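Subject: Interface between my chains keeps coming out wrong

I've been trying for a while to get a sensible model of this assembly. When I model each chain on its own everything looks fine, but I need the whole thing in one frame so I can look at the contacts. Pasting all components below, labels as-is. Any help appreciated, I'm running out of ideas.
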Amino acid sequence: MLYYKIENSVDGILSAIFESFLKKEYPDNLVFGGFEVSIFDTLKEIKVDEERVKRVKSALNKYNQFALEKISYAFRYGEDIKLKIIFDFAYITIDKKKNLLKMFNNPIILAFNDIVDRISLERHRFLGFVRFIETDKGILYSHISPDHDISDLLFSHFKNRLNTPFIIHDTKRDKVVLFNGNDKQIVYTKKLPTLYLHENEEYFSELFKRYFDSVNIKERKNTKLQDRYMPRRYRKNLTEFKTKKPL
Amino acid sequence: MLDEKRLQILTESAKYDVSCSSSGSNRKNLGGLGNANLGGICHSFTSDGRCISLLKILMSNDCLYDCLYCVNRRTNDIERATATPDEICELVMGFYKRNYIEGLFLSSAVFSTPNQTMQKLFETVYKLRTVYNFHGYIHLKGIPNADKELIDEAAKYVDRMSFNIELPSEKSLKLLAPQKDKNGIIKPMTALQKEKFIRSENKKGKFIPAGQTTQMIVGATSETDGIILNLTSALYKNVGLKRVYYSSYVPTNFETSLLPYNQVSLLREHRLYQADWLLRFYGFTVDELCKKEENLAEEFDPKCAWALKNLGLFPLEVNSAPVELLIRVPGIGLKGAYKIREARKFTKLTFEDLKKMRIVLKRARHFITCSGKFFGEEKEGRIRKLLLQLEQNDNATQLSLFDKNEVILSTITGEF
Ligand code: SF4
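Reply #2:
Try treating it as a single job with all components included. I did that and got this:
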C-alpha cells in the first residue's frame, strides 16, 4: 500500500494532490503525525509547497467554483478519514475536469457529500443544543463538545441573536469562540475559566428543568425517537438532563 | 417572578397543544434580544420524542368554559394558576438568553370574557416586543369570539397565530364544547387571512409572517379520516393555513360517556400526518388518498395504499419518469427524487446506483424499472404481502411522524 504522510491541513491535502498527478500514482491512504507502516507498505512524506498548493487551487476553482469552500468546510469533520475523502474528491474534480457534486451515484462524491452533510446537520443541531450560563458580569458562557469542529460556525447566529458578549467553549478541541461586544475572537486554551454565576442563574435553570418535565406527555413515551433526534452523547452539557432540586 | 409550582401548572396544561414549530419567520433583531430563524430550530427533545422549540405556556388555566375533552374544563378538579404579563415576559427573556427556547407559544384558558382574555394576551406580546425589546419567535393562540380589532392588534406583534378547531365537525363541537361554535373559530381565521393579504398588498409592516395553524383532536368523536382530511385540505386552500396538527385524544375525563375511555391509537394520528404531508408536498388530493366516509388504511402508509390501488400506473422507469411521478413511488421521497433527477444527467442509473444513493428500495423495487430492468414482484398479492411485512417491522420499531428519509429534514426544519 502507498501512504502519503502529509501535514494535517487543507494545504497538506492539496500538496498531496499535486504529487499524485505529477507522479501518476494514487495513494491508498493519507496519514499524518507519527504514523508507522509495515515493511510491505510505502510511506511517502509530502511537504506543503505553496506554489503547488496555488496551482491545485486554481485548477479546482476552474472546474468547480465552490470546491475550495466545500473542502475547507469538509475539513471540519471530526475523524481522520476526511483526509482521504477530501483527497479523492479534489482528485476526481481535477481529473474529470468538471463539477461532479451532484453525481449522487458516484461513491467518491457520495462520501464527500456525506461528511459535508453531517457537519451541517451538527451545526444546525447546535443552534439549538447550546446552553448558556449567565455569569455575574452578564456574560453568557457555554461549553459544548461536538463531533466536528463547528464552534466558530455558530458565531454569527448567536451574535445576531444575542447582541451581547458570549463565549462558546469547545472543550473537546480546547477552542474558545467569543464575542466581546464588537468582534469575533478565537482562542485555543486548556484552561477552564472560573465562573461566578448570576444571581438568577439557578432560578432559570431549575425552571427550565421543570418545564422540560412538564411538557412531556408520559402516555406517549417514545425514547427511541428522542434518541434519534437528540443523540445521548450530546446530553451531558444540557441543562435539562441534569438532576433537578426537589420542589 | 413566576414560581416553579405555577410554571408546572401552566405548562402542563399547555402541552396538549402539539404545535411547537418555530419556522416560517425571519424576523430581525432590532437592537434587543432575539431574531427568528426561517427554518425553525429545535432546542431539545422530550422523552415522548417531541421537539421543544418554544416555551409553551398558558396565561391561565382557570377556565370558565367546560369543553369535555379538555383538562382545564371548569368542572375538572385541578389546581388553577394564572401568570401576569410581566411574569411571562421575564420568563421568556431568561429562557431565551440561555438558548433554552426559540420563542414563546402563548395561549390561555378563557378565564374571563373572551375580550378580556384576549386583551391580556395582547398586553403580554405587546410588552414583550416593545418594553422587553424581544425579537424572537412568538406564536399566539387566539381566543374564539374575541373582537376582530383586538385580534388584529395582537397579530401585529406576533409571528404566528392559531385558533384551534379541536373537533372536526360542528355537531361534535356542540356536543363536547357547548360554549363554542364553529363561527367563533373559522371566522377569525378567515378574517386574519384577509387582513394579512390587505396589509401585504399595502406593505403595512409585519403581520403574522409565519401564518396561521390549527389543531384537531382525533378519535374523541366519530368523524372519519376522510372528513378530517377534507377539512384539512379546505383549510389549506381556502384559509391559507400553514399547518394543520392532529392530536390523538388522551383521556382526561372519565365522568362522561360521550368520550372514549381508552387512549386512541397513535397509529391513526401517524397516518393522518403522513396523508397531510402527501397533500402539502407530494401533489396528492384527498380523494386519491381517502374517501369521505372512510378511514386511512392502518396496515399501509397512505402512499403505499394508493400505489397498490393504482398498480396499473407502474412500474416507472427511473431514468425518464418525471419527478412528479417519481415522488409517488413508495419509498422514494422528495430528496430521493431530486437525487435521481440530478444523477441521471451524468449516467443511466442502475439498481446498484440507486442503492449507492441510499434510496430505500425495499418498497420502491416493485414500482420502478432501472434501464428497463425490473427487480420487484409481478403478482399483486405477493407485493401486498411483502409491503405488509415491511410496515409491521417499521411500526414495531417506532412511530415517527415522518418517513425515515424525512427525519433529518424534519429535524432541520424544526417541525416538531
Ligand atoms: S375553552 Fe379552551 S381551556 Fe377552556 S375548557 Fe375549552 S378547550 Fe379547555
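Reply #3:
Confirming on my end. Residues 396-416 of chain B have pLDDT under 50 and may be disordered.
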